[in-house]
Amino acid sequence: MAKKLLEKAGLIHLPPAPARSALPDGTVGGEVDGSKAKTAPGSMLQFMTAQSAAVKEAESLRERLAGFEGALPTRRLPATAVRVSAWANRHDDSYQDAGFLALKADIAAAGGNVQPIKVRPVTGLGPDLMKGRAGQGAEAGVGQSNPPADDIVYEIVFGHRRHRACLDLGLPVLALVEALGEQQLFVEMERENRARKDLSAWEQGMMYARALDQGLYPSNRQLAQAIGRDLGDIGKALSLARLPLAVVQAFASPLDLQYRWAKPLADAQQRDPEGLVVRARALKAQPTQPGKRSPKQIFEALAAVESAAETAGPADISVRVAGKPVAVVSSDGQGHTLVRFVKTLPLERRQALAAALARFLSGQDSAG
Question: What range defines the domain where residue 168 resides?
Answer without folding.
Answer: 72-196
